[in-house]
């Protein structure tokens, strides 16, 4: 960030996750009661998991994107980052709804999510557990806490069955291509003339352009813009971007098929606890950390992450993924589990 890196309040040598890491760190450190994040492919749920709090990614179009700096326009979803499921339900009820300033926002009716919270709804709820998610390299502590959460959910009356879905690594590839293509388009306006930093005029036109584009963007945005431009370029768009969108549709159809038979999908939020600061410069680490959330984000489905426990004194998370505009079901599932496990307490 412009003011330096955000730190994870649980261990200041670790990352809070991203991209909504500052929002999550602030809530976890009791700097605020609630904050907003935006998720493109795990950017609400991942930092919530790493910071030991609750993150709710609504259905795409459930919450207006007006005022949000566009990254991936077909993916971006603003949502609550809070301490408890009840707070998530309350805040979602405030921010959800149609907005004439965002033509993608939905006119679907908005529930009183907080009033309709009911932990007893977990009894008889059918939850799908994708075996491909558990075949990934998941840390022992994350897996142990997840298995404990599954046992609790079963004791509460949930019906949990293993299902097969597309390999989540396909979602990683789709995110890399689709999101970066949209990033390159959205950031093209920041040319120093219409928007963004204006570079030095003490040279020729070429130097001016290089200064404007080079000084106004960090290394990761530059990397995404360059690969996105390549994916959209003549001769490569069909091979990369078009294929990526076709695979994205397959992922959507696959998850939709599961959710026709089940009320929600349950899995670990991310394969690991918070990574160390030294790993921040490796772009692959971030995408591997997001691998369990990317598919549902690409499909536009709602998802919520809540704490599942601690591993070596660091938080782990469990997520519930629901049907389109059915945030209430995943809120109820998360609420029921939270009542048994309880919110994590950070001692600063």
TrEMBL record:
Span of domain Amidase: 1-331
UniProt-listed PROSITE patterns: AMIDASES
Keyword Amino-acid biosynthesis: no
This protein's UniProt keywords: Transferase
InterPro entries in UniProt: Amidase, Amidase_CS, Amidase_dom, AS_sf
Record lineage: Bacteria, Candidatus Dojkabacteria
Protein name, as recorded: Glutamyl-tRNA(Gln) amidotransferase subunit A
Keyword Transcription regulation in annotation: no
Domain of life the protein comes from: Bacteria
GO MF: transferase activity
């Amino acid at each position: 960030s412009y003011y330096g890196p955000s730190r994870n309040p649980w261990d200041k040598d670790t990352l809070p996750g991203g991209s909504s890491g500052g929002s999550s760190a602030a809530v976890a450190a009791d700097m605020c009661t609630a904050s907003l994040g935006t998720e493109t492919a795990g950017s609400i749920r991942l930092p919530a998991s790493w910071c030991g709090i609750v993150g709710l990614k609504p259905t795409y179009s459930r919450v207006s994107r007006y005022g949000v700096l566009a990254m991936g326009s077909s993916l971006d979803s603003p949502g609550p980052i809070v301490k408890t499921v009840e707070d998530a339900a309350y805040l979602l009820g405030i921010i959800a709804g149609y907005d004439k300033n965002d033509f993608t926002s939905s006119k679907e009716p908005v529930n009183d999510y907080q009033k309709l919270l009911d932990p007893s709804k977990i009894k008889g709820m059918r939850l799908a557990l994708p075996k491909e998610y558990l075949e990934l390299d998941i840390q022992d502590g994350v897996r142990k806490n997840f298995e404990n959460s599954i046992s609790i959910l079963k004791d509460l009356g949930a019906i949990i069955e293993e299902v097969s879905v597309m390999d989540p690594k396909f979602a990683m590839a789709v995110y890399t291509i689709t999101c970066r293509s949209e990033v390159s388009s959205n950031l093209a306006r920041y040319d120093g003339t219409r928007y963004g930093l204006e570079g030095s005029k003490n040279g020729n036109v070429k130097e001016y352009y290089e200064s404007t584009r080079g000084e106004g963007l960090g290394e990761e945005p530059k990397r995404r813009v360059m690969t996105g431009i390549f994916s959209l370029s003549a001769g490569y768009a069909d091979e990369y971007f078009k294929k990526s969108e076709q695979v994205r549709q397959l992922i959507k159809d696959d998850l939709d098929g599961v959710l026709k038979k089940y009320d929600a999908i349950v899995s670990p939020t991310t394969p690991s606890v918070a990574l160390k600061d030294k790993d921040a410069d490796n772009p692959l680490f971030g995408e591997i950390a997001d691998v369990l959330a990317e598919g549902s984000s690409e499909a536009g489905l709602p998802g919520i992450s809540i704490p599942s426990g601690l591993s070596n004194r660091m938080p782990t998370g469990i997520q519930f993924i629901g049907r389109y505009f059915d945030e209430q079901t995943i809120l109820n599932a998360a609420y029921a589990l939270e009542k048994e496990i309880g919110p994590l307490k950070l001692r600063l």
